[in-house]
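debug: dumping io for the single-chain case to check the tokenizer round-trip. Nothing else runs in this session.
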Amino acid sequence: MISTQERIDFSRFGKAFQENLCRIILDDRQFADQIGEVLNSDFFELKYLQCFSQMIYEHKREYGTHPSRQIIASIIKSSDVASSPAVMKQVRDFFVKVVSNDPNVEGDGYIRKMSLDFCRKQKLKEAMIKSAKLLHTSSFEEISKLINEALKLGDNNNFGYDYLADFEKRFELKQRHPTSTGWGVVDGITQGGLGKGELGVVIAPTGAGKSMALVHLAAQALKQGKTVVYYTLELEDTVVARRFDSCLTGIPINELNNFKEVVLEKVKEIEGTLIIKEYPTKNASTETLKNHLHRLKVKGIEPDAIYVDYADLLRPVRMLKETRQELQELYEELRGLAKLSECCLWTASQTNRSGLNAEVITMESISEAFNKCFVADFIFSISRTMEDKNANTGRIFIAKNRNGVDGVVYPIAMDTSNVSIKMSASSPQNPRDVMENAAKKQESMLKEKYKSFVSGGRMNGDS
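debug: decoded output
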């Protein structure tokens, strides 16, 4: 009887491994092409997976394009290639499971590496057996060529998007898997929030609530059961954690100590996972964040959303002549980090002095590097005058939005005592109208003040 180790198939890896490998082959044309050079359908221990993989590669050979899920569904529906009805039923059941499950495959990297390694070794073994037979009859060059060709099979052949081979891919609906902002209005204009690989930026002057806004956004992700990594470059990790306590429970920050047990019970109910990592100001770079994320991944913690509080306090990876160039590069690196991590990434930027008491903060008020706006997918600003801070009000201006409307203003209610930011669902306002109304209000107040001064002076007999 042949042992599991001696069998030339994937049985040693188990059923889940083999099913997930088929899912990856279906959804990733480039990997399907790569492993297709060394894959034998008989490597699958289970008959229905052999049949499923054959359907994919037969379609590729006949039509020169990688089949989409819709095409495979059609093939399965009309297929009579299997002599066993029981096998076809298993194929259908498996495909239903593929369609209904999360598109992300657990252990994706491991499955790709181990399956490729196994298949390439089988091809190399075949070549070595053939070369042994050729030792007495063929030249060294022929044997060397045979071995070298075997070594090349299954090597990384990702040359980019193939216009013809990937034809079906451009007609598939793209899944952004957005993370909600907790504001219905913003979710509405961004198609559900910030998507994977996208960069969002909060712009505000000092003391206006950049960090509060980032905590609010991260708390919404936690409520959705997401794994959140929050980098703080200015405040202590425990200070940030208390802000989360307040935001998630509604208890004011200065009263948390009186409600310790209540806070614990409420945060226990949160389904998401929160990691807060503190770095001293200007001590961490984007490479530092990458390394930390890698260490988390090794521990089995894969984030869904990343928050950097805030990007301007990161240390540049390389020193450039001008600060604006360094900042632009930082934001480009953060966009790349979001893409590589397949997470949404939020950060903040400080305005220059013109934004300190502005009614509406536009992108012109971004400190130092206007070019950092170019790489962001979504940008909003928070403006709060002294009157707003006293009244717990303010305005959010949608400065940039790749997935919907921008250039509009929404009033907000903002209470920093318990990190509460609520956005009005009223109709958006034109920023020019908001600023003109503010100017008229200011002018009216000055006139009233002047009248009172003149009236008071006359009553006192002043000329």
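debug: round-trip ok. DSSP finds 16 helices and nine strands in the chain.
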